[in-house]
Amino acid sequence: MITDFVQNCIDGIMVGSGYSLLALGFTLVFGVLKRLNLSYGPSIMLGAYVGTWSFLNIADNIWLVLLTTICATVVIGIYVEQLCFRAVSKETTIASMVSSFAIWMQLEEIALHLLPERTYPFPAFFDSGLLEFGPFTARSEYLFMFVVMLLLLLILHAFIYRTRIGLAIRAYSDHPSASAYMGIDGSSVLFLAFIIVSIIGGIAGFLILSADSQITPFFGLWATFKGLIAMMLGGIGSLSGAVLGGLILGVIEANAFWYGDPVIRDISSFMLLFTMLIIRPGGIFGHKIEIHQKIASERV
Hints:
Blueprint: H1 2-33, H2 40-57, H3 62-86, H4 93-114, E1 120-121, E2 130-133, E3 136-139, H5 140-162, H6 164-174, H7 176-181, H8 186-212, E4 214-215, H9 219-234, H10 239-259, H11 262-279, H12 286-299
Antiparallel strand pairs: 1-4, 2-3
Helix pairs in contact: 1-5, 1-8, 1-9, 1-10, 2-3, 2-4, 2-8, 2-9, 3-4, 3-8, 5-6, 5-8, 6-8, 9-10, 10-11
């Protein structure tokens, strides 16, 4: 029993690393804009569809698929930023969220016209294999995704807290009006944030789909749900919280699948979210973020 539980936790952490990558993108946009981008998951899906199209029609080259997936996701992210966030007033939060939902529907339609079949193969980054650690095992592609997730977290943390551009992003996030008086161009900060988020999303989509070896039109909805739940579990606006939330979500789902029923796996994630919203509405690191924002407002 203990061995099964530990193995489930290992599997959950490996799968949860994909959730963490998705949550990092949602968290970065929400932390900067204080607005929710519902089209983030479908943007990743359409970028991956472009990568799949290049795999099927241009060349059977995994690096080409990776490059086209990331580049397409960045282009789509710029399109969403221009249409849903830059063109919509900062005071109309609901309008930007609704417009991003409309873009969601648009991106799904484009994906279905690009590749009309329900399911398409997605190339594996490298041959799947099991790594053994005594009585426990881990799939090599998921272990690689876990390592990439940790590296991206460290890079993002260093970028946000150790560079002048990161300082500008944090200043704009804390108080857009005050940052404008300091000479910070809010439009440039917003544009840069979407570029970074889109790159992370392209990498996340590629690694997740590479491990699954297939892509379907439901990937956008799935990525949106998993990323949002992981972000809200960890604490909205916290990079480390996003990672922790994704790993916790993966562990809960893995154990629910093993000890319960496959149908319970997705239900357990929503029940976990509802429980967290009741016990700690701001997420695991939500209280720390609220204190930081309060101090920033008092300084202004």
